Amino acid sequence: MTAVPRERRPPTLDDPVDFAGVRLRNRLYRAPVLECAGNDDDAVDRLIADLEPAAAAGAGLIHQGATIVTGEGGCAAPGMTRVHDPDFVAGLARLTDAVHAHGSRIAIQLEHGGLRSMEVWHDAYGRANPDRHQLAVSRPPRVLRALDRLGFLDLSPRVMTTAEVESLVDDFARAAARAVDAGYDAIHIAGANMGIVQQFLSPFYNRREDRFGIDPAVGPDGTPGVGVAFLERLAEAIRDRAGDVPLLTKIPSERPTLPGIGPYLSDNDAVAACERLAGTEGPFDAVVPVRTSVFWDMSVVRGAFPASAWRDERFRDGFREAFGSLPRAAAVAAGNWIESFVYDREPGWNRDLCRRVRHRVDAPVLCEGGLRDRAQLDDALARDADLVGMARPFYAEPELPARLLGAGAEPEARAVCADCNNCAIAQAAGESGVCRTPAVLRAAGELRRQGAYDRNGAGDGRDAGTGDSL
Ligand SMILES: Cc1cc2nc3c(=O)[nH]c(=O)nc-3n(C[C@H](O)[C@H](O)[C@H](O)COP(=O)(O)O)c2cc1C
Ligand code: SF4
């Protein structure tokens, strides 16, 4: 990407923008959240039902939730969609057509769980797949091995040879090429949900000595560095197979969850990784810097303790299957409760990190995490990022953009999502990706009755005006 000057006046949510050559009608995006369509009889119908409303309501860019690039293994959660099958991916053209018909753009997110794969933590799935090995970047960190010995995890790692890493790269690249053929506008690599890409990036997981190891030159002096080589190789392979498609990735800044755990990626490491990957010579067209953990905990989805989901009788069997017994599910819930205090829930908790990255790279910076109202979104665009997004609020209000964008938008408009995380935890029990909080759904229903989602003055995007280029 060549460096281009930033806009002279701060953009607002309604301003169109060119995103690596792809025109977006505004700067609001749906962040990737799992639809859990993988077990549906017709996953494409389900994805259309989930994602088309956001397009019809005016979203500039829609990120589909993470999809798994291999035919077996690698699923981090129940019901994830796989994209190894050419016929299935070709069928996703119905989804991209539906989104395009409303003037939105759509990115697919590609992932592999690695050590976060389901058989490691999901009791029933692990029993049903006793011979499954997880692709591992290196021997698992000591704390994961301890959890394995204590029976909280069931690790059976296979540390990849260099040739096996290349084979995984090829799985990503082939999935990307198929997605481009099916009409996706951009490829998003899932880099910060504790899956295999983060495991390559993080010195907590990556102790490889081949060319996919940690690069000490990326990161501040005195720290191990960042393992950017896997992402660089992915970008190269995707471009070889899929052509010059816009590429973006989340980049993690990690927290250790428990004191004394490490090494982990700091904010400084994350900024350095963004510079390397999306700087003038970098292969990525955009980055999404986000704060995560080295563990698969609630750091990415900060919010309240999801008490009512844990207590919901309808999910009880699912929790028992996932965690092996109800007492063990209660132990996980207790950890969940502690996390709700550990993680700072300041609205827009990634904004300062995005701002630092934005000062260092010319490529678009996407910001998400606890952004909830129009004023916050505009302020983040003025100071911290080039596009702004929301995830959980789209579960509660699939047509949310209609309230935030265009001539009809209320200046005080705010998503109704209560950050209670009932949606997130229910997915461990195999439930689909929808809002699970009756009061919030009632609030959205009331807005619907009042016609709040019909006031879409955001245009159809086919003539998006004179926005700036990034
Ligand atoms: C249930 C759930 C599923 C998610 N799935 C993904 C995913 O597939 N890929 C990803 O990169 N992030 C995923 N996220 C993280 C979101 O993209 C987003 O970063 C996070 O929820 C914070 O944004 P929010 O406060 O607007 O929800 C998920 C979040 C939730 C709650
Ligand atoms: S359950 Fe509903 S209100 Fe709660 S975080 Fe999820 S989407 Fe938001």
UniProtKB/TrEMBL annotation:
Which residues lie in coiled coils? none
The terms under GO molecular function for this entry are: FMN binding; oxidoreductase activity
Q: Which domain of life is it from?
A: Archaea
**Pfam families according to UniProt:** Oxidored_FMN
| InterPro entries named in the record | Aldolase_TIM, NADH_flavin_oxidoreductase, OxRdtase_FMN_N
Question: Is the Oxidoreductase keyword given for this protein?
Answer: yes
| NADH:flavin oxidoreductase/NADH oxidase N-terminal domain ranges (all copies) | 15-213
Q: What keywords appear on the UniProt entry? A: Flavoprotein, Oxidoreductase
The family database entries (PANTHER family) matched by this protein are listed as: BINDING OXIDOREDUCTASE, PUTATIVE (AFU_ORTHOLOGUE AFUA_2G08260)-RELATED
Quote the protein name from its UniProt record. 2,4-dienoyl-CoA reductase-like NADH-dependent reductase (Old Yellow Enzyme family)
Originating species: Halorubrum alkaliphilum
